[in-house]
Amino acid sequence: MGAPTAILTNDGIRALANATASGTSIKPKTVTFSNQNLSLDPALSASDIAGWRTQNITAYLPVNQDIATFQCVVNASDAVDFTRFVALFLDDGTLFMVGKPTFPIAPNITQKINIPLTYANAQNNISFAYIPFGETDQDFNLLNTLCVGGNQILKNTLKLERIRIQGVN
Q1: Per-position b or e across 45-56, b if 16+ CB within 10 A of its CB
Q2: Domain total for the chain?
Q3: Best label site of 28, 74, 108, 138, fewest CB within 10 Å?
Q4: Three-point CA angle 31, 43, 74, nearest 5°
Q5: How many CB atoms lie within 10 A of CB 158?
Q6: Are 75 and 143 in the same domain?
Q7: Spacing of C-alpha 153 from chain mean position
Q8: What are phi and psi of 78, to 5 degrees?
């Protein structure tokens, strides 16, 4: 068995070329998980893909200006079949990329797929409107705790400073 592989489809190449030429962006949105044993063929179209699950991309992981990785995770309770083939679709239904894991992924386990895209200035030609940024997740509860704690420290410091200025130690 070789390494997992993903390729752009002909429709995906056209979508990127059109986006580059027009100054617009493509919008990756969903991944379909399939038990089909298809060959990686750039001529595949959306009608060729029959999957057991289609869901939104879970995360976008930036690598550099030219490489973007799309991640999709299926929880074990939702993994009802083997995954032998994956397909990444744009928001308009265009079959953008297809891929094969190194070996079929069994059902009833968490299935995590990373699909890398290497394309000149990929970061500028892809709109990530539908994709959470995996490396910039924010816990706003933590941020709020830090702000409240920081404000309390500042208030206590100001009280101590007033006491010190008044000569009361």
Answers
A1: eeeebebbbebe
A2: 2
A3: 138
A4: 15
A5: 10
A6: no
A7: 38
A8: -100, -10
Q: Which domain holds residue 16?
A: 5-136
162 and 122 belong to one structural domain: no
Q: Which pLDDT tens digit goes with each residue over 75-85?
A: 889 999 999 99
Q: Are 97 and 8 in contact (CB under 8 A)?
A: yes
Q: Is the pTM of this model over 0.90?
A: no
DSSP 74-138: E-GGG--S-BSEEEEEETTS-EEEEEE-SSPBPTTS-EEEEEEEE-TTHHHHB--TT--BTT---
Give the tokens for residue 144.
């709020």
CB 46 within 8 A of CB 12: no
On whether both 97 and 164 belong to a single domain, the answer is: no
Q: Are residues 33 and 110 in the same domain?
A: yes
- 122-160 residue pLDDT tens: 666 676 665 554 443 433 444 444 444 444 555 665 666
**95-100/111-118 β-pairing:** unpaired
Statement to judge: residues 116 and 165 lie in one domain? no
Would strands 5-8 and 28-34 be described as parallel, antiparallel, or unpaired? unpaired
